[in-house]
Amino acid sequence: MAKIIQQETFDAIIKENIVEFSMSLDEAREETISQFEAQGINLANIIKDLDINEETGNTILNEAIEGVKNHVESTKRLDDTQLNATLEALIKELNKSVPHRVLASKSCTQEYLLKIMEDEVKKNETNHAKDSILHKTILCAHAITNKNPDIFNEKSLRTINKILDTEKNEHIVCDILKWIQKACLLHELNRQMIVNEELLITHLKPLLLGRKEIEIVRNVCTCLRYLILDDDIRVEFGKAHEHARLIAHECLSDLTLLLTEFKENPDVLAELMLTIAALCVRNEFCQVVAEANGIVLIMDAMVTFHDSLKVIRESMKLLKALGGNDKVKVDIIKSGAASIIESSFNRHKADEVLAKNALACITTLSLRSKDNSTAFFESGIAETILEAMKIHAKSQVVQRNAAWAIRNMVSRSREQCEGWISLGIEDILKTAAVNHPSLDQDLRYAARDLGLQVKLKEEWKGTADKAISNE
């Protein structure tokens, strides 16, 4: 069995080499590593590249944590300038890697940071300056939680609530929201705790509606999306759908109305549309967006920012999400979306991600709808689809989505088949089949629905001991 040591032991030997033997930092580190490896010690659990204070031989991370600890415990109180410098050093170290954050977590760093925040909140200031002690402490908490969400707990959430109750500074509010986002990533229990504590109703929704700063709105939208993630492999059954339902019930109409308020800002429009699409997880929510004039607002955004790849991409995603409701799907095409979608797709067809999303949107909107399919075909979208397939011949997702879109368009509109064939669809499907053997089935079905000659593969055939009579 391999021998192991603790990080403290490794750091102590480096310090000894620097202080006692007057080695340089690099020499001390190399000597320490070679000593332990010669003794057969496995250093896989050791952070070997911690920055060292060459005057004291201590790691800068440990010195910063010790300084914060002594300040909190009143062993050695620091003035604001000293505390600011200590927090800056801590932020710099925590931002280096996950092992740095885990090591800091083991030293109760989070508890000391929360205590400093609470002390700052007790001063009853409502507009702390950017780079103030409170702001720097929040940045530390944000950094230590990044990809290390296990340290976030109920005390952290209570502290966040206290700060948001009174804080007005845009930068501090945004960094609090980013802290919440990091706590949600890869941690289902944190998401459930945040939702159960009603942070959405008490603070996120009021921030969304009451604050007009662009960065605050964008960060609130990101928080809402992170609350409906399902990315924690440690939890067998998450509550992503339940959280989406609760958030949609509280905020969906308001988010749709904000499309009007920020109609001149493409970045915010894209953020809002991405969030709305993520929340449209049920049939009735699609109807809510449509009743809030969402379809018209999406069309306006696509026309106004026709050159914005981001706006067009998120519009396609949102239209696809709304198309899950059969009634809304019809309303979308009746509003003149077919020609706008075709124009936008044609303009940006060289972008693979947009082509993928546009084809998925067409697939959804033309599903089981002859009128929608006809409107698309009359807009000239068939040519655009085929051009996209040629441009992205090596993209498996684009070829698959195109096959699905073609099938949905012609399945109830057989009169379109001749038009597709005259455009050269047969050769394009054959080329796609050669480039992407895994899509063989999808491509064959598309060719079959177009009325082309297709040799379908018999996957399985049963046998019987006795002949089966048809009589």
From TrEMBL:
Q: Which InterPro entries match?
A: ARM-like, ARM-type_fold, Armadillo
What SMART domains does UniProt report for this protein, alphabetically?
ARM
What protein name applies here?
Armadillo repeat-containing protein 6
Alphabetically sorted, this entry's keywords are: Repeat
Kindly indicate whether the keyword Repeat belongs to this entry: yes
A biological process (GO) of this protein is: hematopoietic progenitor cell differentiation
